[in-house]
Amino acid sequence: MKVLIIGAGGVGTVVAHKCAEHPEVFTEIVLASRTKSKCDAIAASIKQRHGVEVVTDQIDADIVPDLVNLFKRHQPQICINVALPYQDLTIMEACLEAGVNYLDTANYEPKDEAHFEYSWQWAFRERFEKAGLTAILGCGFDPGVSAVFVAYAAKHHFSEMRTLDIVDCNGGNHGKAFATNFNPDSNIREITQKGRYWQDGKWV
Question: How many CA atoms lie within 13 A of 179 on its CB side?
Fold first, then answer.
């Protein structure tokens, strides 16, 4: 499968390396971002570490026609969107126009407002179905991978679960006093929001 990854930050780097680790699935990898030099550095790292060639390109993910041209130029079967959360809708529009399947790790939010919900992206559902395309939303760590881990644990290791705490952190130390675990803007928005949690059968 040929994959086109949009985004060359921390998450994009991990996604590109993970795809390169599975050449039986991802036979061709294209990495595109606003800053092509970042893509080139990641591609060089992947070549050295995994021996896999990664094609790189430049894209402004805010501009639908440019995205469509990117897809037409590379002809991917799937786009993995790890760009900024407020670019989800333009990338989804371009996927529809170019006939490319879509996957992202974080839900859309408006650029100038900290508001997290899937309604904007769910509005694309019927259009993707009619086009015969798949769109998989929000399959990053929270709630994606963590939900899979919890379901596996509940099925295979526990007869009952009453409380579940998810601790989200990164390993390692790069010597900096503070580091966000993904896009700094998104992290700041999230940590300044009032928390929501499930207690006694209702959301608080």
Answer: 11
